[in-house]
Amino acid sequence: MSADVASTVPNPSTLQNPNHDTLKVADQSHQMHGFSHPSMQKSPVIFQSGDGGILKDVDGTEYIDLLGGITVSNLGHGREDIARIAYDQIRTLEIGNAYPGYFDGARVYLTAGGAEGVEAGELSEWHYGSSTRGYWKKKLIGFRSCYHGSTFVPFSLMTEFYDYGWDRLTEGWSTEMKQHKDLHFFSSNDPPNEMFFNKDKIKQGENVGQAAARLLEEHILDEGPDSVAAFIFEPVQGDGGAVPHHPDFFPLARQICDKHKVLMIADEIMAFAKTGTWFGMQQYNVAPDIMIISKALTSGYLPMGAVIYTDRHDYTWSGHPTCAAVALKVLEIIVRDDMISKAAERGRTYLSILQKKLHGLRLVKDIRGRGLMLGIDLISDIGSDVGMRLLLEKKVVLKSSSNQHCLLMTPPAVLTDEQFEKAADGIKDVLSSWQARGENLVSKSRQS
């Protein structure tokens, strides 16, 4: 190891009993965070432990977790019953071999996370398209402002991240090649909800759901039904701010996809076990062809996802024994403790608390929820700044949507009413003070 490289590696002995300053230096020197804020450069918050719905940093300060570790920990932090299962499995078998096997019919393919599941689902639809309509049936249609992960296929679908997906791969291509219909593999439509759908596209007599369904079929016909293999979507837009879709859309979309032999892929990565039903699509009584689940599958105790579909795939960490054991334990707890019903019940309670606490605030445009997926829509794009003030001043953890207009919450179902009330008071205080000072009330990108 060269001296330059060695100098960047932290000495393990200094991290055995770390204090805040030691961890702060190590974090700033080595750790690249997926989500961050300029405030963290000066004084990063480093969590050390958790219990239920409470997180504790290295200085012993407690925080109310309204995010569940980025929408993951629906059963709460610090559960010894889940940790024991992981320990026992590691002692028994730490890694499994994926011996060849084939089974007809529907099956579940285990992955190391949600984004990997999206990639596997995309490969599945390519195989489906090639086997049913020929080589060119590979196009994938999605929704704008939907988040499907941080890998190639999701980035290619999201307008905010085009530069990291298909556009980056085709950099240097001629304009003619880029615009060639046969090479237009990834595209998006407006999602069927009041928040993100362009109202000018609604015809007389249509609602948002019907208009979105019509545009989906027009999109498929424009691309060519023989070239469109699948349509991917979130049942509830998570990163967009816990936004449910119009109930008329999915029954119509199911008919359209069947008509044109297009697979429906439901990204349930965030919605699984959080909306008051096992799957978000149960809210609409429509069955997709492929479902991708993650996050709540292991409640964050180990990384794992699953693709429910008909096809074959393989990755090194597929079906990791310890992750699988933890997932089985988590599912057992969800069933035993009736966590699906509790998600619906707790969600209604939390939503009511937010509506009462934030009533009358001009900065708040809408408050909504579907189970444990909750969103506070703001009239200004200050979500990240508000979230950071809540973290540093009120010790409340939540997340801003990508467009900065919404505060997203997916709290653990074990959070108490008192804890949520306290967090809601913190949200009210920060928004009230922001409103009183008149800071950034005019949006940079969206007028109220």
TrEMBL record:
Keywords: Aminotransferase, Pyridoxal phosphate, Transferase. Residues 8-20 have a biased composition (Polar residues). Its cofactor is pyridoxal 5'-phosphate. It holds the Pfam family Aminotran_3. It comes from the Eukaryota. Residues 1-21 are annotated as: Disordered. GO terms for molecular function: identical protein binding; pyridoxal phosphate binding; transaminase activity. The keyword Transferase applies. PANTHER family: ACETYLORNITHINE AMINOTRANSFERASE, MITOCHONDRIAL, AMINOTRANSFERASE CLASS III. Belongs to the class-III pyridoxal-phosphate-dependent aminotransferase family. This is Ornithine aminotransferase. The lineage of its organism: Eukaryota, Fungi, Dikarya, Basidiomycota, Agaricomycotina.
